[in-house]
Design a protein that fits this description.
By secondary structure, this protein is mostly helical. It has helices spanning 2-23, 49-65, 67-85, 91-122, 125-133.
Length: 172
């Protein structure tokens, strides 16, 4: 009986530890958090090889430039989650953490907007027109951007820079 309980406990612990990895799916490609789908809206534009190289360089530079901000957002989200999990949550600490998190997310949104504008400079007028009339950055689901929003700071969701367009959150 003890062996059966031990075996079931080991299986349960193993499932708990691996469930989060499987919940995120097979991966995002290139280790970026948006890799395999980041060009989903651009693939229909018949980009030249030169355009692809320029856009990838812009995306890579943006990814490197936003690393610190993304890390701060993650850390602040964890801190906020811990504040909410306390027996007696402190309203002021939670409000302060939420304000800091909003500031960081606004910073990411600004950088994503700058990236989108830079990418549009690489495209021809015809490609920009086609992009404007396509469902670029909008996938299936609910909400104004086509994707369901997660439960905010308390669980997985689209994450920083989740607006329409290139960069993180493009495949909502």
């Amino acid at each position: 009986m003890k062996k059966l309980i031990l075996a079931l406990t080991a299986v349960a612990v193993g499932l708990l530890l691996t469930s989060q990895a499987f919940a995120w799916g097979p991966g995002f490609g290139k280790g970026r958090g948006y890799g395999s789908c980041r060009d989903a809206g651009l693939e229909r534009l018949n980009l030249t090889d030169e355009q692809k190289v320029k856009i990838e360089a812009l995306q890579d530079a943006n990814f490197k430039a936003t690393k610190t901000t993304r890390e701060k957002i993650f850390d602040k989200s964890v801190e906020l989650r811990r504040l909410w999990l306390q027996a007696n949550p402190d309203k002021n600490k939670i409000s302060d953490a939420q304000k800091e998190l909003r500031t960081l997310r606004n910073e990411m949104e600004d950088k994503t907007t700058a990236l989108q504008l830079e990418v549009r400079k690489v495209l021809t007028p015809e490609q920009n027109e086609k992009l404007a009339t396509s469902r670029w950055g909008r996938g299936p689901g609910f909400g104004p951007r086509g994707g369901m929003r997660g439960p905010g700071e308390f669980g997985p969701g689209p994450g920083p820079g989740s607006g329409p367009g290139l960069g993180m959150g493009m495949c909502q």
